[in-house]
């Protein structure tokens, strides 16, 4: 039977600890690709031009000559990407906890019993006789041994993800796009 140290030594800690960490790295890479796909789908049209949304509204405009205000229809064109926040998730922490509990109980039980019994008979008839002797002996030995082993393993993986900061390149693109917001009188 292996000892608890041998059992723990046989565990693949690289997989136990590295597996959740590799999964977190892959999750973050997948989140980054989701951001790229989102920016492509929402921010640009099929020709690669910036996708925009245009809407109109009414606005009172005062004439420079001091005349009464006049209601004008205004048109605003806004790059779509500036209206929505792209998904920028990042893994903030990964906590891996592992608990191993190994209980080993070994036992050996030995018992023995020896039993002897006998009978003796003697009888005589006219000078000659007969004799009978019966003897029985018994020896019994019982040996019982074994072991009980209980192994409990538990693993807890906690991953904390949050909204990441806007990458510097994306922030620069947003600043350029915000500069392209236009408003005009129809």
Could you walk me through the main structural features you see in this protein, from its secondary elements to its overall organization?
With 186 residues, the protein is of the alpha+beta class. 27% of the residues lie in helices and 52% in strands. It is built from three helices and five strands. The strands form two sheets. It has a three-stranded antiparallel β-sheet with strand order 1-2-5, with helices on one face. It has a two-stranded antiparallel ribbon with strand order 3-4. Strand 1 (52-61) and strand 2 (70-79) form a beta hairpin. The protein is rod-shaped and about 170 Å long. The mean pLDDT is 78.
Count the DSSP helices: 3
> What's the story with the biggest beta sheet?
3 strands, antiparallel
Average pLDDT for all residues: 78
Binned, the helix content reads: 25-40%
* Estimated share of beta-strand residues: over 45%
In spatial order, strands of the major sheet run 1-2-5
Radius of gyration: 45 Å
CA-based shape: rod-shaped
Sheet/helix structural class: alpha+beta
H/E topology pattern: HHEEEEHE
List unreliable stretches of 5+ residues: none
Tally of strands:
5
End-to-end separation: 88 Å
Which key phrases capture this entry?
186 residues, alpha+beta, two-stranded antiparallel sheet, 27% helix, 3-stranded antiparallel sheet, 5 strands, rod-shaped
């Amino acid at each position: 039977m292996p000892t608890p140290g041998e059992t723990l030594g046989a565990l693949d800690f690289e997989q136990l600890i590295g597996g959740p960490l590799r999964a977190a790295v892959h999750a973050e890479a997948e989140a980054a690709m989701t951001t790229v796909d989102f920016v492509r789908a929402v921010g640009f049209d099929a020709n690669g031009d910036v996708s925009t949304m245009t809407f109109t509204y009414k606005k009172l405009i005062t004439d420079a000559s001091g005349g009464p205000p006049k209601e004008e229809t205004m048109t605003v064109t806004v790059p779509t990407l500036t209206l929505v926040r792209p998904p920028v998730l990042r893994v903030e922490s990964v906590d891996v906890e592992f608990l191993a509990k190994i209980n080993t109980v070994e036992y050996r039980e030995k018992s023995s019993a020896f039993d002897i019994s006998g009978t003796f008979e003697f009888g005589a008839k006219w000078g000659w006789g007969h004799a009978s002797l019966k003897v029985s002996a018994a020896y019994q030995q019982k040996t019982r041994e074994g072991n009980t082993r209980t192994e409990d393993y538990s693993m807890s993986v906690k991953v904390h993800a949050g909204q990441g900061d806007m990458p510097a390149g994306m922030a620069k693109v947003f600043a350029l796009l915000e500069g392209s917001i236009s408003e005009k009188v129809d």
